[in-house]
């Protein structure tokens, strides 16, 4: 897995350490983090970081956040966890199945079998490394054109696009509209020949959230009608050592996901921004939660996520973005209990201000921006009209 060492901040390192060495919750918290191999992944990542050449800055950040790490014990724990069958897999089959078990275990739900059938038909070998991007934070994205350190496999084309069509020269319509419908239906309204970039309201701990359990929310609506689930599993097995995470202040980005009509016919290709808000109920999630009573902390940390969301879309727009439709929505306002007003306000703040060295509001880097949800979007409309 490519790690942008030059862009990692103390906050990023502390995020990793909070999963690798949970301080609260005791063995119950460890069991929770081991269910989807999250803790193992972070221990592997830390072990990789300390072996990286010229890592003095990283070592200092790690020691600042957690000065008492016993590295021999870390390696022993990694070996132990590697020899365990993923607990989540044991929920579906007692025997060890191995990589991509999610596509092989028997399922009773027709919609899951249909989705897996489409994946096997149209994407049997999965996604290429050039289609799968991990952006840890906004700084990693912003520095693509100014830093010699970047993921040459995944971001060479994006870097070329940014240099050829600089963000401060992009003067598009940036029109904002509100569509009260499901995300898969909204995609059908994107004109042929236009690029679509879709925000996936994801689960930071597990590919697809409760996809295998038959839950049907925004992320599952995307995955039931696309090859997106295979992309998330490719992050897990090709890049993350059979673990999974979405960086606390970043996103996963997937190029050219195939979407289908209910009949199974190919509708179009679209990019996915895979991002997660904090679960303020405390029921799910990987990272230390902001205090539910500290609105400033919640807002500040979520704002950092949103800057990365929009920057990833700018970076991966085709050419100058004049044919790009960006489909957003009320992420985190359902089961995760984030305020609709806060989410709308943060999107308005990010889109109506400069980003990525833009000359004016970053919304004009796109042709159209749609906020999409089956729920009422009046809060978003009023917020943007008042901004």
TrEMBL record:
Any Pfam family the entry gives: PARG_cat_microb
Leader sequence segment: none
Top-level taxonomy: Eukaryota, Metazoa, Spiralia, Gnathifera, Rotifera
Domain Microbial-type PARG catalytic: 178-261
Name used for this protein in its record: Microbial-type PARG catalytic domain-containing protein
Transmembrane segments: none
PANTHER family, per the entry: DUF2263 DOMAIN-CONTAINING PROTEIN, MICROBIAL-TYPE PARG CATALYTIC DOMAIN-CONTAINING PROTEIN
Superkingdom of origin organism: Eukaryota
């Amino acid at each position: 897995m490519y790690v942008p060492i030059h862009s990692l901040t103390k906050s990023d390192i502390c995020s990793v350490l909070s999963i690798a060495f949970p301080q609260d919750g005791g063995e119950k918290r460890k069991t929770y983090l081991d269910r989807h191999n999250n803790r193992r992944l972070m221990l592997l990542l830390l072990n990789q970081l300390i072996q990286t050449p010229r890592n003095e800055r990283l070592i200092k950040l790690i020691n600042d956040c957690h000065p008492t790490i016993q590295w021999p014990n870390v390696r022993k724990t990694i070996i132990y966890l590697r020899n365990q069958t993923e607990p989540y897999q044991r929920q579906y089959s007692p025997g060890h199945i191995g990589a991509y078990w999610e596509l092989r275990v028997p399922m009773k739900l027709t919609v899951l079998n249909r989705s897996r059938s489409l994946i096997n038909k149209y994407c049997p070998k999965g996604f290429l490394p050039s289609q799968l991007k991990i952006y840890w934070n906004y700084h990693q994205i912003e520095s693509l054109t100014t830093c010699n350190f970047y993921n040459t496999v995944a971001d060479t084309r994006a870097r070329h696009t940014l240099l050829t069509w600089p963000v401060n020269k992009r003067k598009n319509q940036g029109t904002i509209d509100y569509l009260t419908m499901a995300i898969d239906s909204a995609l059908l309204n994107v004109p042929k020949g236009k690029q679509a970039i879709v925000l996936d309201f994801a689960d930071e701990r597990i590919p697809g959230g409760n996809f295998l359990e038959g839950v049907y929310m925004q992320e599952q609506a995307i995955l039931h009608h696309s090859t997106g689930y295979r992309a998330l599993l490719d992050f897990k097995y090709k890049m993350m050592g059979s673990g999974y995470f979405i960086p606390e202040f970043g996103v996963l980005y997937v190029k050219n996901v195939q979407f289908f009509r209910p009949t199974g016919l190919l509708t179009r290709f679209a990019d996915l921004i895979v991002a997660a808000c904090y679960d303020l109920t405390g029921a799910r999630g990987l990272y230390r939660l902001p205090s539910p009573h500290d609105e400033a902390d919640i807002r500040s940390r979520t704002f950092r996520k949103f800057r990365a969301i929009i920057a990833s879309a700018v970076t991966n727009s085709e050419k100058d973005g004049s044919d790009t439709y960006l489909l957003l929505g009320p992420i985190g306002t359902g089961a995760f209990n984030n305020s609709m007003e806060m989410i709308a306000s943060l999107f308005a703040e990010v889109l109506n201000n400069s980003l990525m060295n833009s000359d004016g509001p970053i919304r004009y880097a796109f042709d159209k921006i749609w906020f999409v949800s089956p729920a009422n979007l009046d809060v978003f409309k009023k917020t943007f009209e008042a901004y």
